[in-house]
Amino acid sequence: MLSKLHFELVQDWILLLKKFGDEWQSQNQQAYHLSEEWQKIQQFLQKKILPLSFDDLDSENQRLWQSWQTETHRYLRLLHTDLLFFATAKQPQTKSMKASTITQHWQGTLQLSINLLSTVKGAFK
Questions:
Q1: Which is nearest to 27 in space by CA: 68, 70, 72, 83?
Q2: How distant, in Å, are the alpha carbons of 55, 56, 82, 90, 94 from that of 109?
Q3: Which of 4, 11, 14, 22 measures 20 to 30 Å from 42, CA to CA?
Q4: Average pLDDT, whole number, for the chain?
């Protein structure tokens, strides 16, 4: 079982990711790596997700939580790199490819979190 804190943290994370995705899809997308929403996501990851201990979880959920943290961090690093490349790309074809990759990595990050919650849905201490 996840603790209530862990469960609610992932719910908040999903809301942040959805807001970022909505804005990414609806905006011009120029220099998006500097946006307020992107900064919120990075701060949330660094200040709330990565430092949150999993010691109070049972061994199965410890592995699940640690795996989720690791994969979420990996996806965010990929997104960060993609956003930087997108911002500096000059060719329309390159921008289009990077925009598509950003969308894929965003969706992967979101789905990872949704899957975590569906695995433990309603089950927290």
A1: 83
A2: 24, 25, 14, 27, 22
A3: 4
A4: 85
pLDDT in tens, 21-69: 888 887 655 556 567 888 899 999 999 998 888 787 788 888 888 899 9
Show the tokens assigned to 108: 């992967």
CB burial of 8-22 (b: ≥16 within 10 Å; e: otherwise) equals ebbeebbebbeebbe
Amino acid at 120: V
DSSP the chain: -B-HHHHHHHHHHHHHHHHHHHHHHHS--TTGGGSHHHHHHHHHIIIIITT---TTS-HHHHHHHHHHHHHHHHHHHHHHHHHHHHHH--SHHHHHHHHHHHHHHHHHHHHHHHHHHHHSTT-B-
Q: What is the pTM of this model?
A: 0.86
Considering only CA atoms, which of 13, 7, 31 is closest in space to residue 71? 13
If you search the block for the tokens 């908040």, which residue do you land on?
A: 12
Side-chain-side CA neighbours of 49 within 13 Å: the count stands at 25
Quick one: what percent of the chain has pLDDT higher than 90?
Answer: 46
